[in-house]
Amino acid sequence: MEGVRSERSVEKLPPLQGPVIQRPRLQVWFIRVCSSIIIWTCLVQLVAVGELWHPRLLTGFPGFTKMSAHQERSLPSSPPPLVPARNYTSYGFLKVSCNGGLNQMRSAICDMVVVARLLNLTLVVPELDKTSFWADPSNFEDIFDIRHFINSLRDEVRIIKRLPKRFGLRYGYQPLVMPPVSWSNEQYYLKQILPLFDKHKVIHFNRTDTRLANNGISLELQRLRCRANFQALKFTPEIEALGNKLIHIIQQKGPYLALHLRYEMDMLAFSGCTHGCAEEEAEELRKLRYAFPWWREKEIVSEEKRFHGLCPLTPEETALILQALGFDKDTQIYIASGEIYGGQRRLAALRAAFPKIVKKEMLLDPSDLQQFQNHSSQMAALDFMVSVASNIFIPTYDGNMARVVEGHRRYLGFKKTFQLDRKQLVELLDLHQNGTLSWDEFSVAVRLAHERRMGQPTQRRVVADKPKEEDYFYANPQECLCECTSCGDLSGHGNTTIFR
């Protein structure tokens, strides 16, 4: 009986198929959910990679609609591959503090790139002027695309955002602070500055304006100045976007003339020019001169400076000159400047002659400009972009912006830029206004005076031992405009028609 019972109990057992594990139902569902999440994550990653390498790869699948041609063109292009970094032994760190307005600092930055390259130094991203008349708190990265600046020059010079900590003031390190000598050539930096790095690993140039000569610099370094200026110094995406929007708004209305009307308080005070000002305005400008100790010349005879062509043209004088050059009342004029001294009262004659005068504040919504308020250099960057893109550019004073814009326009194909001969114009204006010259005589004389002053290719003027009287490198970087070292063969190309 026991044997029979045992046999029956064996018959009830299932066949042996390995160990059986009983899983709770909740655990099974948890595993399924996790597996689904992993699978979908992989699928999304696959789609993203597919779109990156071939945007049309997945357009045939349900849920993916084909983009329009406009949408495809608007996709951000992948950044170009980095140029190989230059391998060199750095002799030290060059720290610089730029001085002046936007365009003065821009030229100085390019010069300091060249100095760092010449001396095999590591350049620290330049500090911008925050103590000048404009008191702009902007840093380098607020105006220029800092990553682009560093990467685009890495095959020439090593650029870092800040000094290593061991060279900081917190660690007791004191760099050598000095201004280099103005208008210096390569030999000055090689013989006078480079040996200083044997003792001082960090040198801080606290002034950088015009510290490199216009002429006598090797062709390789001159072209590096251009590369830094025209390619490496790119405005931030925010400035570029708003500047392009502003240009588009103006161009929709037709060709335009960009007028750099430098009749602003700081320029009048700096130059000591008070022609056309009321007595109280002249006194205000005189006081401003004394408020800035680095403006060394204090007592100035305004009419004498005007006679020698050293004053910016007044808005009233500018209106007459533009009319004499052949511009009519339908000419669209963009005023690229800050606040005109004397306000709307001083602009009345210019507006009467040219009703189609516009400024960025008139064309853009206040919300567009809000982020740039109280940042004069960022506002100047917008004017710079509009001026470079204009059909014609006319500055009423040959300051830094006028000269740097002129150089950019030459680089872009010798775009028409009037270089007003203020000394001759003041004489002609006075003769016309006292009745000596009729309007027709005045107009003919003004046009004849500027036949060869419209941005045509020309040799940069060299004045031995008088660098201040030479043509500025950044206004006419001839080494970068021709394959040969001379632009003399191009000087026959005309540039004499309005809105060509």
From TrEMBL:
<dbReference type="GO" id="GO:0009507">
    <property type="term" value="C:chloroplast"/>
</dbReference>
<keyword id="KW-0735">Signal-anchor</keyword>
<keyword id="KW-0812">Transmembrane</keyword>
<dbReference type="InterPro" id="IPR024709">
    <property type="entry name" value="FucosylTrfase_pln"/>
</dbReference>
<keyword id="KW-0472">Membrane</keyword>
<keyword id="KW-0808">Transferase</keyword>
<dbReference type="GO" id="GO:0016020">
    <property type="term" value="C:membrane"/>
</dbReference>
<keyword id="KW-0328">Glycosyltransferase</keyword>
<dbReference type="Pfam" id="PF10250">
    <property type="entry name" value="O-FucT"/>
</dbReference>
<protein>
    <recommendedName>
        <fullName>O-fucosyltransferase family protein</fullName>
    </recommendedName>
</protein>
<keyword id="KW-1133">Transmembrane helix</keyword>
<keyword id="KW-0294">Fucose metabolism</keyword>
<dbReference type="GO" id="GO:0016757">
    <property type="term" value="F:glycosyltransferase activity"/>
</dbReference>
<dbReference type="InterPro" id="IPR019378">
    <property type="entry name" value="GDP-Fuc_O-FucTrfase"/>
</dbReference>
<comment type="pathway">
    <text>Glycan metabolism.</text>
</comment>
<keyword id="KW-0325">Glycoprotein</keyword>
<feature type="transmembrane region" description="Helical">
    <location>
        <begin position="29"/>
        <end position="48"/>
    </location>
</feature>
<comment type="similarity">
    <text>Belongs to the glycosyltransferase GT106 family.</text>
</comment>
<dbReference type="GO" id="GO:0006004">
    <property type="term" value="P:fucose metabolic process"/>
</dbReference>
<keyword id="KW-0119">Carbohydrate metabolism</keyword>
